[in-house]
Amino acid sequence: MDEVLQSLMEMASLDARMFELRKKLRKFPKRLDEARKQLDAEEKQLAEVEGPYKQLEEEIQQKDGTIKLALETIDKFEKHMDAVKTQKEYLAAKKQVEDARKLNERLQEEILTARQQQEELQPRVEEVRERYRNVESAYREEESQITAERAEVEKEMAELEGQLKTYAEKVGNNMLGYYQRLVKAGKLPAIVQVSNGTCTGCNMALPPQVYNQLMAKPGDLKTCSHCNRVIYYLPPEQAAAEGASAKG
Question: Which CATH architecture has domain 3-168?
């Protein structure tokens, strides 16, 4: 078989594989985006469930701080009561202590109520947290898997590029440029065999003159007037031998 024809056929096979790899490469961002959407949805739900729980916790901390101030007030004015010299000062200090104790009691009750509310929310919060952790773990695994797959695809594509370059060097510039334009336009395979007077790329009948010329010179290259692919003809026995050789 002519070296140019053989090289173009090898390139067609390599370009077909490159096409599949490019499609696979384009799917990676979509796969990761789908996984990210699931994680974002769980994160949003977790925030909605944790919101009231965290708000209660903030209120409890604020009340604990106020209780601390109230206890300091009680201690301060109890000591002051021991040192006052007039009834008026004593009563004023006593009122400060009583008010601080009432505040302390009220806040303690409010904290107890808040804790009870948190206990009621806790099971739901834990349920959503666990689900979020699972989805996050699945997302990280998918991210890692995609990264590994992408690396394999890019490695194979680099190898194919090298092989394509090797075969391209055996094809004349004019034919190579024409072939590459077909590939770029998505005409895959860009070179096809003629069978029974028909282009196997578009399944359209060729002009008799073109078909006769191809049969007269097996392995010669022409272009299909319908789909513009590069076309060639091989006698049945040679095509069979080439097919058997390719399988072997």
Answer: Orthogonal Bundle (1.10)
